[in-house]
Amino acid sequence: MEQNERQEKKYCARLGWSLVLTLVTALLWQYAVAGLIWTGLLPIGPTAYYLLVLVGYYIAALPLARRLCRCIPVSPPAGRGMTPRLLGRWFVIGAALMWLGSLAGSWVNDLVYRIAGLQPVDSVTETLLMMPPAVMLLGACVLGPLCEELLFRGLIAGRLARYGQRPAALVSALLFALYHANVSQFFYAFALGLLLAYTYFYTGTLKAPAVLHMLFNFYGSSIMMLLPENSPLPMLYALSWPVLTVAGVTMLVRGWKKQVWAHGFAVPSVRTIFFNFGMTAAVVVCFVEATLPFL
Hints:
The chain contains eleven helices and no strands. The chain is mostly helical. Helix 3 crosses helix 9. The longest helix is centred in the first third of the chain and has 37 residues. The model has no long low-confidence stretch (mean pLDDT 88).
């Protein structure tokens, strides 16, 4: 039994190190691209720069992370198929989770800034406003979600499913939320992480969470910046959020008992999953990255 626990800890540590590898690669990649531009070795404009910084590091990090975790047994999800109706239902539920989570995140973010004696800042919105529209659409709404689904659902949740799909969804959603490294996104990222993991396990394919993730990013951040200001569309868009929230919460409550989660063949344990060097390092790195704006 002790030998099995040590082996399980090694598996979870590898998953933690794969996330650390992705975070460190992102930081090094950003400095490398900026340095090449500054020295004139990489003569590119703002659009190409933001695209490279946003998703370029995944090109190196994802293959290395998968190689690091190749020895971990995978529990393939039993696919039940995906229909447009299911996809629409999950989108409405996700929109509700996103809006409620963003309200909670904004409130906590402002509170933390005030406690720190700083002027509240929405770093996510500021970053998006700096991006050219092409980067926002291609990077934040297509490439970014695709890469994150490969990492958090395909790699992490898929391998944690050995402890059961529900614990796998919880842990992968927590890591997904911490990965965003800011308070304002934590709550809705965690909620959406649970939903995306469920759609992955339910359908047995990454197509469903990838498409939903793209739709969430587009509807949640990009579409407002593309709407003409001198029209009723921005107001209709703003009104759509409470409508979607009421509908989404209703669907979630009515369908709560119909959820389907498969059990795993290994016993889930908080000590096994988190009390190892890899997972501890991943959590610490995420917290450090989240606290940098307050220093």
